[in-house]
């Protein structure tokens, strides 16, 4: 039987405790080499949304250009180039106050890890953003937008995510991996690398792992990245059959690059996804191109993504977005975006809206 104290622990009370702890830590000069920060993004938009082959609906959404989240993180300097670091971050939906980016998302769904930074690299343990997701966000104009980014919509809005339309395109494993250990190299002449392994906490060996490696290069205005990931499960070991019958595993690889000019920045990504299904394998090729152009103090954002599924449902998908982002200050911006989403054999989908985003 739960005690009275256990009954009153809620996500809201956890948030109050976190704010109190951060306030006390910041206000106490007990250890000048330690720091803790409270931070996040609140983003909401209003407009119309129509999934392919469905009807138009008006709605207010909780994340137009960015999924809203809050978090607190910090570091402790151990001297000699060694530091303890941690981050605890959770998505939330400002339109209704619910925690998580969707029903069933854990409270600290974005990141929840602790680690050690050393001169030889950084090791972190816990729930962590996937390397493929982070690279896909970095090399497209709409970054991590699940509402308006053609890259993110095509990669992560599929394989059962939206039952409104039938598709077998998409990346399994989600945007963050639980039970994960990650190593990040120091940067050397613009080169850096990451490797991550996630345990499935299951006794079935072949169905209880995810792993990924990623490399980045930066030189002036040019940046490039390459990433590979393998996944035997989506959120829990053995759950891929809930997406497609006989689904065994998925591997995905991506090459990406960007170049920044004086008033414009160009982006490009190529993603290859191979799905291992009993008695039939199929793959998906996706190409994305985009740009941002400075107009006054604001920016025009444009992106187009094309996917082709071979051996599965043999679908083609074309998604294009055009928007304008206007900063009100260093922390707050207003935006308006239109996105068209077309599956072969279905009526077109579309999303259009205006929104406001504030960082803290």
TrEMBL record:
Q: Which CDD domains match?
A: gram_neg_porins
State the name under which the record lists this protein: Putative porin
Give its localization. Answer: Cell outer membrane
Give the top-rank taxon of the lineage listed in the UniProt record for this protein: Bacteria
The membrane topology noted for this protein in its Swiss-Prot or TrEMBL record is:
Multi-pass membrane protein
Main location group: membrane
| Key words, A-Z | Cell outer membrane, Ion transport, Membrane, Porin, Signal, Transmembrane, Transmembrane beta strand, Transport
- GO cellular component term of the entry, any: pore complex
A GO biological process held by the record: monoatomic ion transport
What interactions and quaternary structure are annotated?
A: Homotrimer.
All copies of domain Porin, residue ranges: 18-342
Any one Gene Ontology molecular-function term assigned to this protein's record: porin activity
Show the InterPro entries listed in the entry.
Answer: Gram-neg_bact_OMP, Gram_neg_porin_domain, Porin_dom_sf
